[in-house]
Amino acid sequence: MKKTFKVLPLIASLAAVSAFAQTPAEITPPAGNKAVLTLVGVGMLAYECKAVADKPGSFAWTFAGPDAKLLDANKKEVGKYYAGPTWESNDGSKVTGKQLAVSPGVAGAIPLQLVEAAPATGKGAMTDVTYIQRLKTVGGVAPATPACAAANVGTKTTVGYSADYVFFKKG
């Protein structure tokens, strides 16, 4: 009986870690793709106040693009992430992509995401990347204040965020 009590907390801890590590199915790359690189994006997401199409008199902060540094596990800057979306390595290789799916993140954070990569340019870390996942998002949601209204249409603002980007290749 004593051993059971010692093992149960360990099992509970492992289950919690496993649940946290699971990725929602809708943002999981297809079988045959292997995670080869994880970088942390830290920076700003830009938003612009715009009129909402088909809703006269309505306005909303609209995503305008990212501006972030890409950091490795040692927090060394190894690239950048900017509009396109484009992930560019310091080795000169870069990849763009198209969003395929999103899944809710934690409260107050931008959603998790799956992007299908276009063929990379340059040779290096981004060569042959097939998919990019955005995980562990923190912050980055459109601002609540200042309010987006007719008086400030065209105004731009930025919001801090961070996220893990997991790069996949065939294999």
Number of helices: 1
How are the strands of the largest sheet arranged? 1-2-3-4-5-6-7-8
Strand content: over 45%
Distance between the termini: 46 Å
Structural description of this entry:
The protein has one domain (26-170). It is globular and about 50 Å long. Mean pLDDT is 89; it is low at 1-20. The chain contains one helix and eight strands. The protein has one helix spanning 2-21, and strands spanning 33-51, 59-71, 77-82, 86-89, 94-103, 112-117, 129-139, 156-170. It has an eight-stranded antiparallel beta barrel with strand order 1-2-3-4-5-6-7-8. It is mainly β and 171 residues long.
Question: Brief description of this entry?
Answer:
This protein has one helix and eight strands.
Keywords:
single chain; 171 residues; mainly beta; 8 strands; globular
Would you spell out the secondary-structure blueprint of this structure?
Elements: H1 2-21, E1 33-51, E2 59-71, E3 77-82, E4 86-89, E5 94-103, E6 112-117, E7 129-139, E8 156-170
Antiparallel strand pairs: 1-2, 1-8, 2-3, 3-4, 4-5, 5-6, 6-7, 7-8
